[in-house]
Amino acid sequence: MNDATRAEAPEFEPVYEARLWRDNGWTAKVVKNEDDDGWAVEMIRDGEPEPALVGPWTMGRDKKNPKPLDTGAFNTLVKTASEVIRRHEQQLHAMLHKSVVVSGASGQITVALDIVPDEDDPYALLSATDQAGDQIVQVRVAPHFKLNLGSAEAWIASDFVKPGR
Predict the structure, then answer these.
(1) What was the pLDDT predicted at 135?
(2) Which of 24, 73, 106, 107 has the most CB atoms lying inside 10 A of its own CB?
């Protein structure tokens, strides 16, 4: 969910219960662990359909019921879930955006590949940028185009003829 969508999401009233905490855009819900006799906690960012984090939760003193949520636990869970989302976004960005720098007679050229994972028509944009940051050329290529130093050098040497032709 992007910032604009999140801004349109309904504001939830804070809730501070033993098994449900909701505050600052997050909900922590303690649920029965379906895999064993214990408990689990789900961390859900407001407006998201799925939990960002699901993990084991501590048993209470009676060894039957879950330990109640509290401020410290909730804050730790929010931090952990936020970090999980951040790492996922970084991994996705790394998969969809690649670049290499090629040194040539006219200076350095940065060749970038930006994959657009459209469900119906995925594609990628291959672009070349000079040292000043000015775009030299951009072409649409197959989403499985392999960008590496060799393919970038070959594209530059071909005077930027669209690969695959």
Answers:
(1) 97
(2) 73
